[in-house]
Amino acid sequence: MLPAPILEIVGLKKLFNGNAVLRGIDLKLGRGQLMCVIGPSGSGKSTLLRCCNRLEEPSGGQIVVDGTDIMRADVNINQVRQRIGMVFQQFNLYPHLNVLGNVTLALRKVQGHTRQEADRRGRLALSQVDLLEKADSFPAQLSGGQQQRVGIARAIALEPKILLFDEPTSALDPELVGSVLQVMRELREAGMTMLVVTHEMGFARAAADWVVFMDAGVIVEEGPPSQIFDAPRHDRTRAFVSRYTDRA
Q1: Residue 2's pLDDT is what?
Q2: With the CA atoms of 242, 244, 246 and 248 taken in that order, what torsion angle do they form, in degrees rounded to the nearest 10?
Q3: What are phi and psi of 149, to 5 degrees?
Q4: Is the pLDDT assigned to residue 32 strictly greater than 50?
Q5: Is 46 in contact with 197 (CB distance < 8 Å)?
């Protein structure tokens, strides 16, 4: 059983050119929980994630984040997004800014902090992802794994209530994946609430509190990792999980 939800989704639908990508999603994410969303390509996982901060505009349904219905016509979505950190597949760093500059840009331009305060919070966030010594480096001088960790630092520096991860390791070489997953585990242990779309089944099994399996725009099955990976109740879940087990 999840604790009181910080994110609650009811009847979420998304149409692209008349095609239903999300077909009525109901989901609750508890405070301090790590939820992993798994499923085949094209199942609607990333669309679901991007609807949670309205980077994709839902076609119907309700999304409540930290008590705010973000689908309300009068909601200030830019204000709400400051409570929802997002880490993308691609790192989206500004190449002309050093690491600290990338992390502190939104602190100064969006939240209005002084440079001194932004730098203090930026350095704290970089220390959380074990990259403080790279504060003066530029993105081109970093490995892909380091760049993704800068992306995580940029998100947590804003002190969000929830972090959304859209396949954060998919653009990384295999040997760089571990460092990013380790940072995510440490954030989980520190109490950060996280919704993670991932193809890293080992991470989902070991680190998640709750796993959601999606296919064709619907949630087929959800439950603790022990259920989804060791005793799935749905044939479609069993077939998907067994494919990954067979590859391991």
Answers
A1: 53
A2: -140
A3: -65, -30
A4: yes
A5: yes
For 118, other C-beta atoms within 10 Å of its C-beta total: 22
Q: What is the mean pLDDT of residues 1-11?
A: 82
CB atoms within 10 A of CB 242: 12
Q: Which residues contact 187 (CB under 8 A, 6 or more apart)?
A: 128, 152, 156, 163, 194
- Biggest CA-to-CA distance, the chain: 55
Assess whether pLDDT exceeds 70 at residue 1.
Answer: no
Q: So what's the pLDDT on residue 248? A: 44
DSSP alpha helix (H) spans, the chain: 45-51, 77-81, 99-109, 115-128, 144-157, 174-189, 201-207, 225, 235-247
Q: How far apart are CA 231 and CA 238, in angstroms?
A: 8
34-38 and 60-65 beta bridge pairing: unpaired
Reported as a pLDDT band with limits 50, 70 and 90, residue 131 is very high
What integer pLDDT is reported at residue 244 of this predicted model?
Answer: 73
Q: By C-alpha distance, which of 146, 153, 156 is closest to 178? A: 146
Distance CA 37, CA 46 (A): 9
Cβ neighbors of 54 (< 8 A, separation 6 or more) are: 63, 70, 77
Residues 6 or more apart whose CB falls under 8 angstroms from that of 3 comprise: 30, 31, 32, 33
- One-letter amino acid identity for 56? E
Q: What is the pLDDT of residues 76-117, one digit of tens each?
A: 988 888 899 999 888 889 999 999 999 999 999 999 999 999
Place of tokens 């500004």: 94
